[in-house]
Amino acid sequence: MTLPATSTPTLAWEHPELEAWLRLSLTQGVGNAAARRLLARFGGAQAVFEEPASSLQECVSLAQSAQLRCLPEGFAQALASTWQWLQTPTANLRHDLITLGDPRYPSGLLQIADPPLMLYAVGGAQWLNTRQELVRWENSLAMVGSRNPTPQGTDHARQFAHSLASSGWCIVSGMALGIDAAAHEGALEAAHAHEGLLTVAVIGTGVDRVYPRQHKALAHQIAQRGLVLSEFPLGTPPIASNFPKRNRIISGLSRGTLVVEAALASGSLITARTASEQGREVFAIPGSIHAPQSRGCHALIRQGAKLVECANDILEEFPDGPADLAVAKRGATEPATHRAAVTPQHVAAPEHPLLQALGHDPMGLDALSARTGWGAAQLQAQLLELELDGWLTRLPGGLFQRSALS
Predict the structure, then answer these.
(1) Least crowded by CB within 10 Å, which of 37, 110, 266, 388?
(2) End-to-end CA distance of the chain
(3) Is residue 64 part of a domain?
(4) What distance in Å separates the CA atoms of residue 358 and residue 400, rounded to the nearest whole number?
């Protein structure tokens, strides 16, 4: 690969080299491990396709060697669309491919069992026009969790991400609904703190597709102050089996993984497991014993994940973390980095008898009435007042729960 010397995307790739890399990555039956053996043996993607079948069989099977001698189905169209994509940046964002051996390839991924052969990347020229690795795993933390979080879970994800990003960490997640989106948003809100890479989204589709569709604006914001990465070819639609596969990249890019909320069957536990297998730290935020979204986190804690209550619980695990901070560990000792204005009525609100009766678990009207002895009309009026003041949140199913503020 000819590394870019300017911001012009056409200087980054030569057509024959792109053709070779793309062909290697798209050849059926030749996975990442076989491709790495070929690259190590012959020195580059183009060289692989210049070798006779007998030489290829020194590294791969007879069937794989035969596949390498044939063009993948639809290859001409894939090559044309990828070449066009590389030459057509959008909205000041650059498009690029980062391959094994490229100095920009993240070293954290070289340490995992199955590093991707190449990464499709969308981001600003300040990240891609460099000879430095794109994402330094030593300064990156993954945040994952439920696609259907509680309001408190969403708040926690945003607040932890804001605190950690303000402390110089890059937040890595999957741009999914729920916790992932809140983590990216919290990191982006720390834009004032420093000029470094704020967040990275590792997605399970081609980078030319946004999934879910409602995250189109978020994807653009991430690319402006971070990166959107995928190992899947352009045009790859949302396929269920691709999302667990991309989780190894999320954890591989990161020094540790924080699970904010997760049910026992959550895909977030896959990310936590791969992080553990990769020798990375795993953190989990505890929650209510009655909330299904907390059971995955509690299971991780029982298995040895570190219980965290604030961002500083994570920072203290990495005393050699990012040091060039515009705002040194601002908000790091508290999980809540966005606070409502404190007025005299807010000061007294935590002592409100209804909040005391509510405790910290979700509760319905009937249970609250039994605890307080209040009638429905009085309860509804008090609940509405506390909700408007930000002290509690209304949940689906007619339940109420204290907000993170209280």
Answers:
(1) 388
(2) 55
(3) no
(4) 8
**Residue-range definition of the domain harbouring residue 192:** 76-338
* Residues 331 and 368 occupy one common structural domain: no
Report if residue 236 sits inside a domain.
Answer: yes
**DSSP character string of 20-58:** HHHHHHH-TT--HHHHHHHHHHHSSHHHHTTS-HHHHTT
Residues 132 and 81 in one domain: yes
Residue with tokens 């609904």: 177
What's the whole-model pTM score? 0.82
pLDDT for residue 402 is more than 60: yes
In a domain, residue 265? The reply is yes
Same domain as 223, residue 197: yes
For residue 138, the one-letter residue type is: E
Q: Are residues 295 and 196 in the same domain?
A: yes
Helix ranges (H only) for 253-288 are 268-277
Quick: pLDDT tens for 212-250.
Answer: 999 999 999 999 999 999 999 999 999 999 999 999 999
